[in-house]
Design a protein that fits this description.
- With 249 residues, this protein is an alpha/beta fold.
- The chain is 33% helix and 18% strand.
- It has one domain (23-80, 98-248): Rossmann fold (3-Layer(aba) Sandwich).
- The protein has 6 helices and 8 strands.
- The protein has an 8-stranded mixed β-sheet, with helices on both faces.
- Strand 1 (23-27) and strand 2 (30-35) form a beta hairpin.
- One of its GO terms (molecular function) is hydrolase activity.
- One of its GO terms (cellular component) is cytosol.
- Keywords: Cytoplasm.
């Protein structure tokens, strides 16, 4: 049974029963999950996890999905050893927990991971995707990191980046219409503001897309069999994400 009735807005959809096809490695001071395609590839994608951390089976599933499309995929522990959030944790403490895990302070780790991808994996073109907390991190990187090729921000908390229109790289923003964490009925100002600012001053390609009827985490958290009517949108979101990466990497 789906757990959408639970009050935790970031825990929508059951976790996948999935072990992953890749392996865990140590990249300097960071642990990471890495999956490589069977054939040679010089294209890589950094996958930035949500608040549930780098070991979440759902996120590894997406990393492996990228590998199936020819990408070296790496999901590092951007909490750098700090505990990920657990659904059983007390949500009254969430704001304090989040203060010690700033999604805009991952630049050192990204540099380390990019160095690893280039030197150890032969990557020449690197993009980034992220979910929720990681979606906000992608937005930050698209504003600050000149070495990435492109990014996909999945239901990122856009209000954290009020001046986030001067993107350096093509960026795809994915939102869910019925998102309880980035609610469009309350945050529509931020979505509208983002779209308007991008239209006015962004000099690179971008897209903002809202998926009808979908809830937070629909691309990487909801199983396709939870609500059959959602399956086409889940598949569309994943397909859109991969098509965007294929276009710009």
């Amino acid at each position: 049974m789906a757990n959408e009735v639970k009050p935790c807005p970031c825990d929508i959809g059951d976790k996948f029963d999935y072990e992953g096809c890749g392996q865990e490695v140590q990249v300097e001071h960071i642990k990471a999950y890495v999956c490589k395609p069977s054939g040679k590839s010089d294209k890589a994608v950094i996958v930035i996890h949500d608040i549930f951390g780098w070991q979440l089976p759902n996120t590894r599933y997406i990393a492996d999905l990228l590998t199936a499309h020819g990408y070296i995929a790496i999901c590092p522990d951007f909490f750098v050893g700090q505990e990920a959030w657990k659904p059983s944790d007390n949500w009254a403490t969430f704001d304090d927990w989040l203060k010690t895990r700033d999604s805009s302070k991952i630049d050192r780790e990204v540099d380390v991971v990019m160095k690893y991808l280039q030197k150890e994996c032969g990557a020449k073109k690197i993009g980034v995707i992220g979910f929720c907390w990681g979606g906000a991190a992608v937005h930050h990187l698209m504003l600050k990191n000149p070495h990435l090729k492109t990014g996909v921000s999945n239901y990122g908390v856009i209000r954290l980046f009020e001046d986030g229109c001067n993107l350096l790289h093509p960026t795809f923003f994915i939102f869910a219409e019925k998102d309880d964490y980035v609610p469009l009925d309350q945050a529509s100002f931020f979505v509208t503001q983002l779209q308007q600012k991008l239209k006015e001053s962004c000099k690179v390609e971008y897209e903002v897309k809202i998926y009808p009827g979908q809830t937070h985490g629909f691309i990487h958290r909801k199983k396709e069999d939870i609500n059959p009517q959602d399956k086409p949108y889940i598949e569309e979101g994943r397909r859109d994400m991969i098509n965007w990466l294929n276009k710009y990497i």
